[in-house]
Amino acid sequence: MLAAVVSDLHLGTHSGADLLRRPEVQARLFDALADADEVVLLGDTVELRDDSLAESLERALPFFEALGAALGSRRLTIVPGNHDHRFAEDALRRASHLGLEGRFEVRPGDALEPVVRCMGGSPVVLAYPGVRVREDVYATHGHYLDCHSEAPTFECRARAAVERVRRIDREGYRSPEDYERALAPIYRLIHWGVQPAAVRAAAHAGRRLVRRWERPRAAPGARVRFGVPAMEQVVHNLGIDARHVLFGHLHGHGRWETRSGVELVNTGCWVEDPVSISPGTCVLVPDDGPPRLQSVQ
């Protein structure tokens, strides 16, 4: 078995920074996935913070139609992140408990249902907050690291505000539910803020101000520098029992060894912007041996 893990596609961004809207880049990705028995989309697959859910999906669905044709009967596993957290919310509302490897049914009316329909005959699995790709390989988007990162980003600052309001102990993160309690309200606020057309322009103006504040504080590589130690903390707090932990979120790529001997592998991203590093990468997970970080560009 060979699994291919791809993260941070951000399909349908207003800025046009998402590389996979370009047919030639899409073709190169599908070539790289040709031998994979399973494909894992590891969060922030669709940009759901630019427009209404319907409009965002309209721009993204042609990619899923093409991906379904390329995969055929091979499985697609979708692990939502922070920008597409809405894909997980329907299942999370129905769940009585959230563990490390939740696998959920996509039901009619769920936000993710149009994606499942577009995949044709390809089986689709929704997993959250992560999935075990191999016995010793665990994959998650990585947004939980914002609870430990001191990076100068809006979401890290907003998380700190939620901690104060909800009286969350910074040392009290021990389960996925603990992380969701701090982060999910931020994701819902951002997502629902762009749903009504009447307020969308104001929401976009607010985001531009945030980006203007973040940009001079976010030199290339800064998110990785702050994020890797924070991800190590997440692995420790959640007791993730794996030799290799794959994650995205930082828009960088690389591999690092933690003090406990866990290898962290960042999967990279598929957007071109001032803080992304060498976009166009994925991770291939063979039957055995370390996961392979591969450039597709």
Explain what the structure shows.
The chain is an alpha/beta fold and 297 residues long. The protein contains 8 helices and 11 strands. Strands 1, 2, 3, 4, 5, 6, 7, 8, 9, 10 and 11 form an 11-stranded mixed β-sheet that branches. The two termini are 24 Å apart. The model has no long low-confidence stretch (mean pLDDT 91).
Looking at this protein, list some descriptive labels.
single chain; 297 residues; alpha/beta; eleven-stranded mixed β-sheet; 11 strands; globular
Average pLDDT rating? 91
Strand content: 15-25%
Q: For the record, give the distance between the C-alpha atoms at the N and C termini, rounded to a whole number.
A: 24 Å
Q: Output the radius of gyration.
A: 18 Å
The SSE string, one letter per element, is EHEHEHEHEEHHHHEEEEE
Query: Level of helix content?
Result: 25-40%
Main sheet record: 11 strands, mixed
- Spans of at least 5 consecutive residues whose pLDDT stays below 50 are none
> DSSP helix count?
8
The total count of strands amounts to 11
Q: What form results from the Cα inertia axes?
A: globular
Based on secondary structure, the structural category is: alpha/beta
Quaternary structure annotation: single chain
